[in-house]
Write a structure and sequence with these properties.
heterodimer; A: mainly alpha; 6 helices; 67% helix; elongated; B: alpha/beta; five-stranded mixed β-sheet; two-stranded antiparallel sheet; 5 helices; 40% helix; 16% strand
């Protein structure tokens, strides 16, 4: 078996371990997000997604403006009633108030770029890394001594050759 | 005899001048375009004040429920006012534009009371204590219903972020006009007259 092939087999466990860790972390993250939350946690999460209608750059969760107080109170009521999901409550607030109060970008049109671009950047980065790693591997492969090199080195180290044996 | 030659003109000089001019012109044009767009965007902003109507997602839709106790202890129910024009005014006794607007509302209520199908004016307390509002009305006049909105539900349903805000509900219970900021009795009456004649 060639040295390059041996080296490639040696790398397998590290790649497999990295993939396993990624999958486990993603699974943990998803399962934690899916856990049932308390009403207070829901209210905090929802109000953090809505901009205070009369402030600059503050969420309803952070703002002490009267209109934010009213929105918070009504989010608490809607959460307690338990008939709407978080997304539906955010949608309702967005429908009630003039202007766009959502702090998170939408999923369509120009705003969708905010979701798409990081994914594209991650893919591009992964592609660039793969390209660089491959080049490194190719370069390191060319430096692996060939059989001819080994023979030459052997001959240099042992000028007598096989006569000694 | 040796010919005296004039030095040849530097060909790059003209090129540089002619190249710089379009760049400056394009930069100026770009800046003007950006300023123009900003002007159009700001001029077209929906948030207006005074007697200009303001955009609302509720326009031409059924008016959200307003049913609650009033300062005089009765219950106001907007759904029972079908067939009448209703003007809802969100009010706070410590808000300066609300205080300035109040005499206009008193005048408007008097004007409407003389009409056969005059609009009914209703105030909704916005982020204020009922006792403060009662004291304000006692001092400044106004005998129309004042609805208590303790949990801000009516303000939430109408999307009221600042006061004063005024909403006109038609006899079918639909939102037809929304004002942000101070209004005048003349402006509101004229708008209602216009709506009645449609």
């Amino acid at each position: 078996m060639s040295a390059a092939k041996q080296s490639s087999y040696k790398r397998w466990p590290s790649w497999a371990a990295m993939a396993l860790v990624t999958v486990v972390l993603l699974a943990v993250g998803i399962s934690r997000a899916a856990e049932p939350r308390t009403a207070d946690e829901r209210v905090s999460a929802i109000t953090a997604r809505i901009a205070c209608p009369v402030c600059n750059g503050e969420s309803v969760a952070d703002s002490r403006a009267p209109s934010s107080d009213q929105i918070r109170t009504n989010v608490e009521r809607l959460v307690t009633e338990g008939q709407l999901t978080d997304d539906e409550i955010v949608q309702r607030i967005d429908d009630n108030y003039e202007g766009d109060l959502r702090l998170e970008p939408g999923g369509t049109g120009f705003e969708a770029l905010a979701w798409i671009l990081p994914g594209l950047a991650a893919l591009g980065g992964a592609g660039a890394l793969a390209f660089v790693f491959n080049r490194w591997r190719a370069n390191s492969g060319s430096r692996t001594p060939s059989e001819e090199d080994r023979t030459l080195v052997e001959a240099a180290l042992h000028p007598g050759g096989g006569d000694e044996s | 005899m040796a010919e005296v030659r004039e030095p040849a003109p530097d060909p790059t000089a003209d090129v540089i001048t002619t190249r710089r001019r379009p760049i400056a012109a394009f930069a100026a044009l770009g800046a003007a375009l950006v300023l123009g767009i900003l002007f159009v965007v700001l001029a077209g902003s929906d948030r207006v004040t005074g007697n200009e109507t303001a955009a609302t997602p509720l326009l031409d839709k059924a008016a959200p429920v307003v049913m609650g106790a009033t300062l005089d202890g009765t219950t106001f129910d907007l759904s029972r006012r079908r067939g009448n024009w209703v003007v809802l005014n969100f009010f706070q006794s410590s808000c300066v534009p609300c205080v300035n607007e109040h005499p206009e509302l008193v005048k408007f209520a008097q004007q409407q009371s003389t009409l056969e199908n005059g609009a009914e004016l209703v105030s909704i307390i916005w982020s204020d204590r009922p006792a403060n509002v009662q004291a304000f009305f006692d001092e400044n006049g106004g005998d129309w219903p004042v609805v208590i909105d303790d949990d801000g539900r009516f303000a939430f349903d109408y999307g009221v972020a600042q006061v004063p805000e005024t909403w006109v509900i038609d006899p079918n219970g639909r939102v037809v006009v929304h004002y942000i900021g101070q209004i005048t009795a003349e402006g509101l009456s004229a708008k209602l007259q216009e709506l009645r004649s449609l």
